[in-house]
Specification:
Strand content: 35-45%
CATH superfamily of the largest domain: 2,3-Dihydroxybiphenyl 1,2-Dioxygenase, domain 1
CATH architecture of the largest domain: Roll
Largest sheet: 8 strands, mixed
Number of strands: 16
Shape: globular
Radius of gyration: 18 Å
Distance between the termini: 35 Å
Number of domains: 2
CATH topology of the largest domain: 2,3-Dihydroxybiphenyl 1,2-Dioxygenase, domain 1
Order of helices and strands: EHEEEHEHEEEEHEEEEHEEE
CATH class of the largest domain: Alpha Beta
Oligomer: single chain
Structural class: alpha+beta
Length: about 270
């Protein structure tokens, strides 16, 4: 089954130290890396889920910084980029072809959160391939488990992503004085009336007092033991921002950054509590 318009299909780490990033994430998430020096593929379990981009001096002098970006599948990259710009977003990198992969553009939503839109091009002889970088149907070790948008205007952001990608509200959780944590459901994956939880791809939330200064996406990758992951983050030179906290369903999540400063999240069980 091919991916739907609006699916997250790839995750990219931009870093100033490719070798250092691989040394950090490899043991933490059991990732393997392949490809050239400038761009490396990330392999988790049985499939590729993303890539590592080595930032050049020219890129950093232009403002690029270590961070994670998500790729969202689009039926037509050029058309989608134009629609996003017309709706208050920005085209950060014009559409271009990537040999053997497809056509891609970097954009931002109207609040400024960056992401890619991509029209994949299947390899010759392969029909309707499906990315499992993010999976709706079952947990996969090392794959993305949750896509979380922190934004200055959650209501406007929900309207924007619903209009362009079919993401609609799929429930909410009260965070008290911090606001409301609103789940995002892909309407193409789970039409109206689908049981709660099915088709959920992540959530949108307000900016936090101690959080990042600009709207951004955070991607949570799955680990088999959240406490072992904490030790691996510290041993690998990363920084823990949020200790493991229990989330609905009985698992735990945390927030951290790698040694180069790219922030990310993890999701997994607490083995000692089983």
């Amino acid at each position: 089954m091919a991916n739907h318009h609006g699916d997250f299909i790839w995750y990219e780490l931009m870093t100033t130290d490719r070798a250092g990033a691989e040394a950090f994430y490899g043991p933490l998430l059991d990732w393997r890396f392949g490809g050239g020096d400038d761009y490396r593929h990330i392999e988790a379990s049985e499939s590729q889920i993303g890539g590592v981009l080595q930032l050049t001096d020219e890129m950093t002098s232009g403002g690029a910084r270590p961070g994670w970006l998500g790729y969202v599948s689009a039926d037509d990259t050029d058309k989608m980029a134009a629609l996003i710009e017309a709706d208050g977003g920005r085209i950060a990198m014009p559409a271009r072809d990537i040999e053997g992969a497809g056509r891609v553009a970097m954009v931002t939503d109207p609040q400024g959160a960056p992401f890619y839109v991509m029209t994949p091009k299947p390899p010759e002889g392969v029909e309707n391939p499906e990315s499992h970088a993010f999976s709706y149907d079952r947990p996969r070790q090392g794959h993305c488990a949750w896509n979380e948008l922190m934004t200055s205007d959650p209501e406007a952001a929900r309207h924007f992503y619903a209009k362009h990608f079919g993401w609609v509200k799929g429930g909410e959780m009260d965070m008290g004085p911090l606001g409301t944590y609103e789940f995002l459901r892909h309407s193409g994956r789970a039409p109206e009336g689908t049981p709660m939880g099915v088709g959920i791809l992540g959530a949108v939330m307000p900016m936090m007092p101690e959080g990042p200064p600009m709207p951004m996406w955070t991607f949570y990758f799955r680990v088999p033991d959240i406490d072992a992951a904490v030790n691996a983050i510290r041993d690998g030179g990363g920084t823990l921002f949020q200790e493991p906290m229990e989330i609905p369903g009985g698992e735990y999540s945390l927030n951290a950054s790698d040694p180069q400063g790219a922030s990310f999240g993890l999701v997994g069980p607490r083995k000692g509590a089983e």
